[in-house]
Design brief:
The complex is a heterodimer of chains A (271) and B (271). Chain A is mostly helical. Chain A has eleven helices and two strands; from the N terminus they run ββααααααααααα. Chain A has a two-stranded antiparallel ribbon. In chain A, strand 1 (3-5) and strand 2 (10-12) form a beta hairpin. The longest helix of chain A has 34 residues, at 187-220. Chain B is 77% helix and 0% strand. In chain B, helix 3 (74-105) runs parallel beside helix 6 (146-170) and helix 7 (174-182) runs antiparallel to helix 8. The longest helix of chain B is centred in the C-terminal third of the chain and has 35 residues, at 187-221. Chain B is extended, with a radius of gyration of 26 Å. The two termini of chain B are 51 Å apart. Classes of the chains: A mainly alpha (271), B mainly alpha (271). At the A-B interface, helix 1, helix 3, helix 4, helix 5 and helix 6 of A face helix 1, helix 2, helix 3, helix 5 and helix 6 of B.
């Protein structure tokens, strides 16, 4: 931290003048880029609609209230489907992610040059593509319905579970591995007795956490035809039946809150 | 399980059960889960002839991935990516700027109770509704296009950043703020010199992370009409142009990977 001599005393500053200027230049560049991006983004925006938004919002609220609670009766089956998509999808994700995590971890991978990069690529690809996009693809390939939703959630979960799990495997205490190896254990036994017990709490916590996220995601998959409560949402939106949409939103919100509570309880019990 | 250190002849050590120690409870929980699984799987009815038909399409999609078509819809792809990228940057900047006051207000150690309650409420509302649901509402209010997407992502960013920032401020080393107060600093000065230097590096890191998330989300909200690359992808899927869809997906993965590498590089440079 630089101290400069002013006319009569020493003056402390946090940065040198050059550092200060570099920081200002960086911020200026960011502001310029943001303003430019905003102009590019809004060049096609019809500002009349934006000005009109408060009136539209009031109109929307007017039509959305009061909620048509009788519609709730038709939501139980799709809600059950949504829960199943999330749970079965999470299980599918776990089944695929666990071997991939072992391939991706530096200390358990069979080959650093071939297996590890492939496993990492699978993890990145799964993480970059949202479950809604996976669902869009799968509905086109295997048709609308629950199965597309389950596979979409499963494929999306691989990256999340795989990444957190392989990081946990890399952080294990190697001395336990040594100890089990010293008893003459085979490769599979080393994994079973030395590695698995160490990563099990992380694994359980991550799985439950992902299940919680998947409940949220599976609620909207129906927008592209992949089953669950989103199908109902899509049809109510198409009919502009906003009083039904309110009921659906309330149901989704309640489900999300309950699943968050369950997930927090289970994780608290495990870890 | 026999006590370690007192081996009993003829008996072998058995690993204790992994999660639930009490035998009957373990049976009940695992049994209940098995029943649920059977029920859940039985509700998934798969139209196998549709799947068989789709496999051919799936194969065409794999072929599309091997021969992605970047050129024939290049104007649409370019427009989609420009919208997504501009939306990502502007909404991250706007969201971070707005999240700072909310985050400061949501930190219990520096905000008075009424402000704390209001800010926590903003965080809770923003976090419990998913981006896609917010996008549906904003498209209904502001019309189709990236402006609705910009508002959606900004809104989602506020909840995310403010929550993490508030937790960070609550976790600071109080002695530094105390030292500032001892010099007679005002509230603003304590914030600027005692707290801001402690949370800034993490704020920068989190902003980069949110930039990454916003880009991924921008690829999705286009499906409900909020602009961005998701709209291009949706159209390509609807027209069965799998090679164009594959090109879009490959570009998304590449951009996400590039963002991941450059953000870790930038984080190292900044602090």
């Amino acid at each position: 931290m630089p101290v400069t001599a002013a006319s009569d005393r020493l003056l402390w500053k946090r940065r040198t003048t050059a550092q200060q200027f570099a920081a200002y230049a960086g911020w200026l560049a960011l502001v310029a880029l943001t303003v430019f991006a905003f102009q590019v983004m809004t060049q096609d925006t019809i500002w009349f609609f934006v000005q009109d938004a408060p009136r539209q919002a009031a109109d929307l609220l007017d039509r959305a209230w009061p909620p048509r609670w009788s519609y709730l009766d038709r939501l139980w089956a799709p809600l059950w489907d949504t829960l199943n998509i999330a749970t079965l999808g999470t299980l599918l994700g776990i089944v695929i992610a666990v071997p991939i995590a072992f391939l991706a971890a530096r200390n358990t991978t069979p080959s650093l040059v071939i297996a590890r990069p492939i496993a990492l690529l699978i993890i990145v690809a799964s993480r970059s593509i949202n479950s809604l996009i996976w669902a869009l693809l799968l509905v086109a390939i295997i048709g609308p319905g629950l199965l597309a939703g389950i596979i979409a959630i499963g494929l999306r979960s691989i990256g999340f579970i795989g990444k957190l799990l392989y990081e946990a495997i890399e952080e294990i205490d190697e001395s336990q591995v040594e100890a089990v190896k010293a008893t003459g254990a085979r490769g599979a036994q080393v994994i079973d007795y030395a590695i698995v017990p160490q990563i099990l709490p992380t694994f359980a916590g991550v799985s439950v956490f992902r299940w919680d996220i998947n409940i949220r995601e599976s609620a909207v998959l129906g927008l592209v035809g992949a089953g669950g409560i989103g199908v109902q949402l899509q049809s109510s939106l198409a009919r502009l039946a906003w009083s039904e949409v309110t009921v659906i939103f309330a149901t989704i919100l309640a489900t999300v809150i309950v699943s968050e509570w369950v997930s927090a309880k289970v994780r608290g019990a495990i870890i | 399980m026999t006590t370690p250190g007192s081996p009993v002849a003829g008996r072998r050590w058995k690993r204790p059960p992994v999660f639930i120690q009490r035998g009957w409870l373990r049976l009940v929980v695992y049994g209940g889960f098995a029943v649920y699984l059977a029920l859940a799987i039985s509700t998934v009815d798969v139209n196998w002839s549709r799947v068989a038909e789709g496999l051919e399409r799936g194969w065409r999609f794999v072929e599309g991935f091997l021969t992605p078509d970047f050129t024939s819809r290049s104007t649409d792809i370019l427009k989609g990516f420009v919208e997504s990228l501009t939306m990502t940057l502007t909404s991250t900047v706007a969201g971070v700027i707005l999240s700072i006051p909310v985050g400061i207000g949501a930190a219990r150690n520096i905000a008075p109770l009424p402000i704390y309650a209001v800010c926590r409420a903003i965080v809770a509302v923003s976090r419990s509704f998913q981006e896609i649901i917010i996008a549906i509402l904003f498209v209904a209010m502001f019309g189709f296009g990236p402006f609705a997407g910009f508002l959606t992502l900004t809104f989602a960013t506020i909840g995310f950043m403010a929550k993490l920032l508030a937790e960070d401020i609550e976790d600071i080393d109080e002695t530094q703020a105390e030292a500032m107060r001892a010099t007679g600093a005002t509230w603003w000065q304590v914030l600027n010199w005692g707290i801001q230097p402690q949370v800034l590096p993490r704020l920068v890191g989190l902003s980069m992370y949110r930039l990454d998330i916003n880009f991924r989300e921008s690829a999705v909200i286009g499906i409900v009409g909020a602009g961005g690359i998701g709209a291009t992808l949706n159209v390509a899927m609807d027209r069965y142009e799998y090679d164009t869809a594959a090109a879009v997906l490959i570009l998304i993965i590449v951009i996400v990977m590039a963002a991941e590498y450059s953000s870790s590089w930038l984080r190292k440079r900044i602090q």
